[in-house]
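seq/struct pair 1
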Amino acid sequence: MLPVVALVGRPNVGKSTLFNALTRTRDALVHDEPGVTRDRNYGVCRLLEHSFVVVDTGGLTGEDEGIAGLTAQQSEAAIDEASVVVLVVDARDGVLPLDRAILDRVRRSGKSFVVAVNKVDGTDELQSVAEFGALGAETTLPLSAAHRGGVDELLAAIEAQLPSERSEAPAVDEGIRVAVVGRPNVGKSTLVNRLLGEERMIASEVPGTTRDAIEVPVERDGKRFTLIDTAGVRRRARVEEAVEKFSVIKTLQALEHAHVAVVLLDATEGVTDQDLTVLGHALEAGRALVLAFNKWDGLDAYQRERCKSELDRRLDFVPYAARHFISAKHGSGLGELTQTIVKAHRSATRDISSHELTEALHAAYEAYQPPLVQGRASKLRYAHQGGKLPPRIVIHGSRVRTLAESYKRYLENFFRKRFRLVGTPVRLEFREGANPYEGRSNPLTERQKKKRQRLIRHVKRR
C-alpha cells in the first residue's frame, strides 16, 4: 500500500500550503489566521516515481482541552500512522519551546522525520537553517512552500526515508483489481458479498461499518477479479472518529492500486455533493470508471425517470463512464456490471500502435482543422502512446500550445470513438517539435490511402 507522510507543527507555519504544493491541489484551506486546519486532510503526492499519501494536520498549541485538545489527538494519530513525519517550523519565528516539544513527541514515536524550515524567503536562509540545527535533527531543509522553493529537495529527503519495499503494479494472477468506493451506507459491502456469492463482509445499515480496505479474489464467468471493499468516505466535517479518518487513507490507497473503480451511489437519494467528492478521488487517480446506482428496485417508474434526468444533469462531465442500475441486495444487474468492468479494464490497458494513432490523428485533422490563432494554424504531425491506465496519447506538432480546449476535447472524443475506449479517461499530451521519423518511413500503400480517405469521409458525415 502507499506509504503515509504526515505534516505536523505549530499553527500557521505553512503546513496546508505545503500540502497543496505536494498534492498539486488547493484542497487545503490556507489563511493567515492560525488554527484554520482542525481536521485531517488527505491527498496523494505523485511528484516522485512512487506515490505516497500526504496528511495535513491541525496546528499544535500544547493545550489538551477543547478544540485544541481534539486537534492534538488527530495529530498524534497521524504520527502513529505515518512512515515519515515532516515537522514544519517558521523561519521568521525562530526556534520556540513548542517546536522542541513537538519534535520530542515525533522522536518518541520512533518514526523517520525531516525538519522543514518554512518561510525562508526574505530571510538569511543559511542562518535560519543553522538556527534550527540546534534541534538536532539529521535532516533540516530550507523551504518556501508558498513559492515552491525547496520542495524538490524536501521530496528527495522524504524519498530517501520512505520504506524501500513498496507495493508496485498488481500481479497478473490477481486479475482485474476492482475498488468499490462510495459514501457510507450505499451498499458497498452488500455488493461485494453478492459478487462473491457469500456473506464475506459485514453488511449493516449503520454507516461506517467497514473500516479497512478488504481485498478478496473471485472468479466470475471465467474472469479473475480482486474485489476491494472500502470504507465509506464522508465529508471531513462529519468524520469524527480517528479510526474512520484513517479509513479515508485506505480508500485512497485502494484507488491507487486498482485497475477499475466502481463508484456506488444510492439511487433513492440521487447524486449528492459527497458522491461527487468520491468521484473526484477516482478521477484524480486516473482509474477506469463504472457508475453503479444501487437500490434501483426500490423506485417506482416516476422516481426512476427523475433519477435519470438528474444523472444527465449532474454527471455530464464523465460521459464515458457506463451507468448501471442494480440491486446489490437481490443481485439484479450484476451480470451486466461485471461485463462493463471487463470492457473498461480492456480499454484502459489497451496497446495502440503509433501507426494507428498517427493515422487517426491525420484523419481527425483533415476532417476538422483547428481554428487559426493570429493567422496561423497548429500542425499535428504524429502521435504515439505514452502510457496505460489511463491511456495517454502523446501528440507531436508545431504551435500545439495555442490549441483551443474545445479542439483538444474534439481530439479526445475522436480517439475514444475510433478505438472504442469505453469507461476510461483518455489523457492527451502535446509536444512541440518536428517528426524525427519524417523521411524514414515507407510511403503509404494504395490500400492504406483508401482506408484513410474512407475514415475521413466517415468523420465528416458524423
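seq/struct pair 2
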Amino acid sequence: MPSPSITKTQAHEVDAGLLDRFAAIVGSKYLITDPAAQEPYLVELRGLYRGHTHAVLRPGTVSEVAAILKLAHETRTAIVPQGGNTGLVGGQIPHAGELVLSLNRLDRIREVDATSNTMTCEAGVVLAKAQDAAAAAERLFPLSLAAEGSCTIGGNLSTNAGGTAVLAYGNARDLVLGLEVVLADGREWNGWRKLKKDNTGYDLKNLFIGAEGTLGVITAAVLKLFPRPRAVETAYVGLASPADALALLNLAGERVGGTVTSFELMSRTSVEFALRHGPGCRDPLGTPHPWYVLIELSSQAAGLRGALEDLLGAAAEQGRVTDATIAASLDQRKAFWHLRDMLSDVQRFEGGSIKHDISVPVAAVPDFIAQASAAVEALIPGCRPAAFGHLGDGNVHFNVSQPVGGDAAQYLARWDEMGTVVNRIVTELHGSISAEHGIGQLKRDLLADVKDQVALELMRALKRTLDPNGILNPGKVL
C-alpha cells in the first residue's frame, strides 16, 4: 500500500559498540535486534508506514529510561518513543533507523486513591487496564477509545487522545493532574503530584501532553477519576441529516444537560460497511436511515430512562428523529457500541480508504460534511464518503473509500490531492486538520500552511530548548 508523502531524513547509524552500551542498561534480553522480533514495533496499524531500526529497547524502570536518554543525548543517537503502537499518523514509527524506545514494560498502576479521585499509572499501562483498576475502586476513568485494549496511557497522553467521552470529560490532557517525564538529556522531572490547584509558575505538564514524544518521554501520570455512574442509558437513533443530529444535540443540552456523556454521529455508508464486515454487527433499527446518532446518558441518580424517552419523543415531534431504540440490557448496549467501534476497522475491506481526522466548530459540522462530500465526489467520481465521529466536540472522521471495483493503489496515490481539497474546507470553516490523532509524519508538512507562524516559531524554540541535539522522535510534528 503506498504511503502519503514523507519528507526523507538522513539515516541514523548506530555501531555495535554503542548497542552494547545500551544493552548494558536494559539487559541483552530487552535489546531486540532480530528482524522478526522487531516487526510488531515497525508497522503502523493501517499499514501506511513501515519503518526500520537498529534495535528496540525495552526498559523496565524509569531509571533505565533516564540512562538510555542520557547516553542517546551524549552520542546524538536518535530515539523514537513508542507505546502500544496504535497511532494513526506514523508518529511512533522509526523511518530512518532510529532506536525504538518501547515503554510497554513500564506497566504498573502505582496507586489508586479513591479519596482524592486520582490514579497514578506508568506509561505502559494499557488503557483498558486503567479503566478496570478505576472500576474496582468504584471510580471511572472516562478516556475511551476503540483501541483501548492495546493503546497505552503514555501514548494516549503523548497524542492527547480524544475518544467518545470528550463531550463530558474533555481530551486526555483534561484528565491529567501531574506527570513524570524523562527529558532528552536524561534528567527526570518529577511533576506527578495530585494537586488540583498549583499556581507555582508555568504548567509544564501541558508541554509534553500532545507533543508526541518530541520534547520528553512521559513515564508516568497522575490521572483524574470520577464517581462511577450508577445509571447509564443508551439509545441508537435514526435521522435524516447531520443538521437533525445537531438539533438533537442542542435539545439534549436543554433537557438533560450534563448527563450526556457521548453523542456519536454515523453515516449510513459507514454503518453498512460494519454490517457487511464487522463480526457480530447487527442493524439495531428495522429500516435504514441516512444518518444515526448513538447517544448515552450517565448519572449518579435514577430516572435517566424516562428523561431519554422524553428527549427522543420531543425530537420526534419536531421532526428531527425518525426512529430510535433504547438499549434494554447491558448486552444490547454493548452491541450498539460494538457497531460504533467497528466503523474504522471495517473500511479496509472496502478497498483503499483516505482518512481525515478533522474538527470544526460544532455548529459547522453539517456544512463541513456537505461541502467535503461534494468536493471529494467531484474530485474522484464514485468515491464513497464514510463519515462518523464525535459530534458533541466537532470531531469528524471523514474517511473516503475508493470507488467500487477501483484500483486501491491508484486511489491511495491521490491521498495528498484529496487532503488538499478537504483541508481547504476545514480551514475556511476555522477548523483543525488534526482533532485527536496528532501530526506525526502524516501531517507534518501541512502545518506550515495551517498553523500560525508565531505558533510555529514558539514550537521550534521549545524543541531547540528541550531537545537541543534533536534526538527525540526526529522528523515528527516539526
